[in-house]
């Protein structure tokens, strides 16, 4: 980690408060500008819904439940219920505006072995999905890290992930061909007609939004990132990134509106109760797609016995009821047009609000109407192109409990076990052990080397060890994959603590003549100051940590 990156890295917590205040100011300005009015939003029953989708939300794709292969629904829904009944879905304690807050949603991360996902200053550790040919799914005793039921559940989610990898690529390619044909046709028309005009408007709008958010994005680029932040990263990958990447994790969410007593009303459009507020999905490879599987279950599976077949049967019944209303991807409903009168319209609105919906809006825009897309059980939707960067989305609560499996391409350059193990090895290379005296000393006292080691020391303690021992180890009771690696990492950290003490001894030794002694002292002072501040932050949250452990124990009973 370079010195400039190190300073940004350790200033994140200090700067996050300013960033949150800026976002609150933007929200207040929007609400003040709106007054008592509401921005219009469209649902499938509304005229112009499809046109709005095509012009302003083209990166969104809906895949109805019938698009999935036979048998996959049953396996995936059974897997989700297994995770819930086994107590794998847990509420996280996250940090928002310098406060420790429980998430309303229960979550678990499933994905490639050794991967993590960081959001709102919280790191989630994967339960490995047991895919075919994948190694490293056993513990130190060469035993499976999970029991057979959990392995089957994770494998089913991997099968869904494989389907998404293939289907998203096909949908993206098909949409690209369609756009190419449309561009060719429009190029023969006069400028400003059809989709060309909309594309120009979109580009101008995107440029304006990018300028507005440039300062805010710089503030949050290296901050604790996650699915509840409201500003996306600004870096841009190659335009064909969607065809090059594959989903490496899925974040499993469970939401029960009857247990979520403090659901807030959607403030801008009047869409209804929000289970998850407006946000961009964070800490992802820029411009990478997101695929979401939605499963609405009739009751709380942990408290009431609901078989997978029963759940799927009710899902199919609901799907049949909607078949005449919805055709293809995002087509407008035709049935309400035939039934005139306020009664049928109100009934249609009530039906839509009874099911779970995903809401979308152009970020920080009060002129473009929002979009509310109802989700039947088993439906999937994709966010492709730059939709996650230029738009925000929310989850609008329905009447029943809901699972979602949100498949992502997370940033893995600094978030994998392989990465942090290599960092530990780099630091420990500077520690020399005398085989005869069994004493230890530092090989190099060069300032750059010492700075590099102290950076790794802080990263290991605050980005990995404390994150794991705080919340990550909750999963050890049903998956042992991370136990041994984290124990070894703690041993490495203790060696780094000894290296810091050795450096302190050198600096304090008046008999030691070192030209860079003052510089070594500055490096040590800065490192210890940062470390002390971070440790104090963790101590201040100790009471909430006890509460979350108690809550998890109650959930596991």
UniProtKB/TrEMBL annotation:
Q: What is its EC number?
A: 1.14.11.53
For this record, the Gene Ontology CC terms, alphabetical, are: cytoplasm; nuclear speck
Cofactors (names): Fe(2+)
What keyword terms does UniProt attach to this protein? Cytoplasm, Dioxygenase, Iron, Metal-binding, Nucleus, Oxidoreductase
Subunit structure of this chain's protein: Monomer. May also exist as homodimer.
User: What are the start and end residues of every segment in region (Disordered)?
Assistant: 1-25, 174-242, 303-350
Q: What class of enzyme is it?
A: oxidoreductase
The Alpha-ketoglutarate-dependent dioxygenase FTO catalytic domain covers: 46-412
Its name, as the record gives it, is Alpha-ketoglutarate-dependent dioxygenase FTO
Q: Which domain of life is it from?
A: Eukaryota
Q: Where is the composition biased (Basic and acidic residues)?
A: 198-213
Family of this protein: Belongs to the fto family.
Chain intervals with Acidic residues compositional bias: 214-223
- Molecular function per GO: broad specificity oxidative DNA demethylase activity; ferrous iron binding; mRNA N6-methyladenosine dioxygenase activity
Listed Pfam families: FTO_CTD, FTO_NTD
Q: Subcellular location, in the record's words?
A: Cytoplasm; Nucleus speckle
- What's a BP term from Gene Ontology annotated to this protein? RNA repair
Q: Which reaction does it catalyse?
A: a 5'-end (N(7)-methyl 5'-triphosphoguanosine)-(N(6),2'-O-dimethyladenosine) in mRNA + 2-oxoglutarate + O2 = a 5'-end (N(7)-methyl 5'-triphosphoguanosine)-(2'-O-methyladenosine) in mRNA + formaldehyde + succinate + CO2; an N(6)-methyladenosine in mRNA + 2-oxoglutarate + O2 = an adenosine in mRNA + formaldehyde + succinate + CO2; a 5'-end (N(7)-methyl 5'-triphosphoguanosine)-(N(6),2'-O-dimethyladenosine) in U6 snRNA + 2-oxoglutarate + O2 = a 5'-end (N(7)-methyl 5'-triphosphoguanosine)-(2'-O-methyladenosine) in U6 snRNA + formaldehyde + succinate + CO2; N(6)-methyladenosine in U6 snRNA + 2-oxoglutarate + O2 = adenosine in U6 snRNA + formaldehyde + succinate + CO2
Biased-composition ranges, Basic residues, are 1-13
């Amino acid at each position: 980690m370079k010195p400039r990156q190190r300073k940004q890295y350790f200033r994140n917590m200090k700067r996050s408060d300013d960033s949150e205040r800026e976002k609150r100011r933007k929200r207040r300005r929007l609400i003040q500008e709106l007054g008592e009015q509401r921005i219009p939003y469209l649902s499938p029953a509304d005229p112009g819904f499809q046109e709005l989708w095509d012009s302003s939300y083209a990166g969104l794709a809906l895949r109805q439940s019938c698009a999935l292969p036979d048998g996959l629904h049953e396996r995936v829904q059974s897997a989700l219920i297994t995770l819930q009944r086994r107590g794998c879905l847990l509420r996280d304690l996250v940090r928002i505006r310098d406060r420790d807050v429980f998430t309303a949603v229960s979550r678990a991360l499933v994905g490639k072995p050794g991967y993590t996902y960081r959001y709102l200053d919280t790191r989630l550790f994967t339960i490995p999905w047991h895919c075919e040919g994948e190694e490293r799914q056993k513990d130190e005793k060469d035993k499976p890290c999970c029991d057979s039921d959990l392995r089957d559940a994770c494998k089913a989610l991997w099968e869904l992930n494989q389907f998404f990898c293939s289907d998203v690529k096909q949908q993206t390619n098909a949409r690209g061909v369609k756009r190419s044909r449309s561009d060719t046709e429009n190029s023969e028309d006069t400028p400003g007609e059809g989709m060309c005009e909309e594309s120009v408007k979109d580009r101008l709008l995107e440029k304006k939004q990018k300028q507005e958010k440039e300062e805010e994005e710089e503030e949050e680029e290296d901050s604790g990132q996650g699915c509840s932040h409201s500003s996306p990263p600004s870096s841009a990958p190659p335009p064909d990134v969607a065809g090059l990447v594959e989903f490496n994790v899925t974040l499993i969410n469970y939401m029960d509106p009857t247990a979520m007593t403090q659901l807030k009303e959607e403030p801008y459009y009047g869409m209804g109760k929000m289970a998850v507020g407006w946000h961009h999905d964070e800490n992802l490879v820029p411009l990478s797609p997101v695929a979401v599987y939605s499963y609405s279950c009739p009751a709380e599976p942990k408290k009431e016995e609901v078989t997978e077949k029963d759940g799927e049967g009710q899902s199919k019944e609901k799907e049949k009821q909607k078949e005449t209303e919805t055709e293809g991807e995002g087509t407008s409903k035709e049935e309400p047009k035939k039934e005139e009168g306020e009664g049928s319209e109100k009934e249609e609105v009530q039906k839509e609000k009874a099911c779970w919906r995903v809401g979308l809006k152009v970020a920080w825009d009060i002129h473009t109407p929002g979009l509310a897309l109802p989700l039947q059980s088993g439906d999937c939707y994709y966010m492709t192109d730059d939709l996650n960067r230029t738009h925000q989305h929310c989850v609008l609560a329905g009447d029943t409990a809901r699972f979602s499996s949100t498949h992502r391409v997370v940033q893995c350059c600094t978030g994998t076990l392989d990465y942090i193990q290599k960092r530990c090895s780099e630091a420990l290379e500077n520690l020399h052990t005398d085989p005869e005296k069994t004493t230890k000393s530092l090989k190099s006292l060069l300032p750059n080397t010492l700075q590099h080691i102290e950076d790794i020391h802080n990263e290991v303690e605050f980005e990995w060890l404390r994150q794991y021992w705080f919340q990550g180890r909750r999963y050890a009771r049903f998956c042992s994959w991370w136990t041994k690696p984290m124990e070894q990492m703690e041993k490495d950290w203790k060696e780094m603590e000894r290296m810091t003490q050795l450096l302190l001894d050198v600096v304090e030794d008046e008999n030691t003549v070192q030209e860079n002694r003052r510089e070594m002292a500055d490096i040590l002072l800065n490192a210890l100051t940062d470390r002390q501040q971070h440790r104090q932050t963790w101590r201040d949250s100790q009471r909430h940590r006890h509460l979350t452990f108690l809550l998890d124990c109650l959930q596991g009973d």
